[in-house]
Amino acid sequence: MTHKVARYVYIALITTMIIAALFTLASCGTNTDANVEHVVLKVSNGVFPSIAFSPAGRWLASGSGKDVWLWDLQNLNADQRVLRGPNELTSVAFGADGHTVAFGAEDGKVRLWDISKPDNNVTELDAYSEGVMRVALSNDGRWIAASGDTPNSTYTVRVWDRKQDPLKAYDLQGGRGKILPVAFSPDSKTLVAGDLSGTIYSWDVDQLGSEPKLLDGDTNGVKSMAYSADGTMLAAGNVDGTLWLWDLRQGLKDPSTQLAPELGTPASDGHMNTDRETYSVAFSPDGRLLAAGYGDGTARLWSVKQLDLPPKVLSEPHGALVSIGFSPDSKTLGGTAIGDDIWLWKVDGITWPSNP
Q1: Residue 356 predicted with pLDDT over 50
Q2: How confident is the model over 102-129, as a mean pLDDT?
Q3: What's the structural domain count of the chain?
Q4: Strands (E), 221-266
Q5: So what's the pLDDT on residue 263?
């Protein structure tokens, strides 16, 4: 084991012990449905809050308002490091290197912050003239992807190759609707994106100039997407509250599973009830859990091996749960809602009855 690997293992073990202690000692509550303890981190209100765990589990980055907050999960009582931004933030992502934080903002720029350096200097990338919606980093550290708004409604994904100096940008054409979620596969070979027409696009990153493949499935507008850690499953959360899952070992054909949890009733005037929208979705790194955040402020958890069983419901945030993510050890689910704080739920004790 190299010194670098040993250091990451050590940090992960220490962080797990400290978070466990925090759930015991800090001011926390219990959810009546899933009986889940939680900790609440107080932040300034933001219109598009977002969170991301670092790969080793030591840091939690959160975007709230115009600021990026960096929480030391080994000592949540310590002062947070804060990077003040010029515009409202919309998305935050942590790089696999453990020290790069990428974030998008309403001014149309993607910014890269190297938290290993003592200063708060950032690298700025021009992306969209009317705001960045989502940002993603590939696990191999090479690629950056962003979705956003343009005045002429040209629906694209902008991708940068970090191996090029200066960074080379590609504009990938979607074309059917406004693109929101973007995600790289765990092996960094594939980029997917979903749009509000219900179309899901898939690009081979080694052939970015080629036409995207389209995933089959009768999806509604796509609000969120996530890969499982082993790359065998892809989940898409829709505006009507449904979740579609693809088993990618079977190729890009019809989704293998549809999950439709009980949510608020659809609006009778033909408009969508935003309480039903699936704003965020994530798989736990150990492959055991699938989580989704909804417009009604709840998170729902499924057992990946028992998707036919009802989900557990986590509640108490006071707005749409627009960003969720698991800690690297899969023991904690983090989430943040519009105009609300950061919630950390202890989920490693959640179980379902075994199938007969």
Answers
A1: no
A2: 93
A3: 1
A4: 222-227, 233-238, 243-247, 257-259
A5: 65
In the chain, DSSP finds a helix count (H) and a strand count (E) of 1, 29
37 within domain boundaries: yes
Q: Are 327 and 19 in contact (CB under 8 A)?
A: yes
Both structure tokens of 216: 């089959």
| 77 within a domain of the structure (yes/no) | yes
Of 108, 72, 70, the closest CA to residue 87 belongs to 108
> Which range (72-81, 131-140, 167-176, 203-212) has the least confidence?
167-176
* Residue 258: alpha-carbon gap to chain centroid: 20
Mean pLDDT estimate for the chain? 84
DSSP code for 61 = E
Residue 158 maps to which CATH number?
Answer: 2.130.10.10
Q: How far apart are CA 255 and CA 233, in angstroms?
A: 10
Q: Is residue 168 part of a domain?
A: yes
| 174 half-sphere exposure, CB direction, 13 A CA radius | 31
Spatial CB neighbours of 112, under 8 Å, sequence gap ≥ 6? 100, 101, 102, 122, 123, 125, 144
Instruction: Give tens-digit pLDDT for 2-33.
Output: 444 444 433 444 444 444 444 433 334 434 45
SS (H, E, C) 315-344: CCCCCCEEEEEECCCCCEEEEEECCCCEEE
Tell whether 356 is covered by a domain. no
Q: Residue 252: which domain range?
A: 3-346
Place of tokens 């989920």: 347
> Are 201 and 189 a contacting pair, CB within 8 Å?
no
Q: Model's pTM, two decimal places?
A: 0.87
Beta bridge partners of 113: 101, 122
What is the DSSP annotation of 94-153? E-TTSSEEEEEETTSEEEEEETTSSS--EEEEE--TT-EEEEEE-TTS-EEEEEE--TT-
* CB-CB contact of 313 with 300 (8 Å): yes
Cβ contact 241:277 at 8 Å:
yes
**What long-range pairs does 118-126 form, CB within 8 A, spacing at least 24?**
120/83, 120/84, 122/83, 125/160, 125/167, 125/169
Give CA separation, 287 vs 231, 234, 302, in Å: 10, 12, 11
Angle among Cα 34, 234, 334 to the nearest 5 degrees reads 40
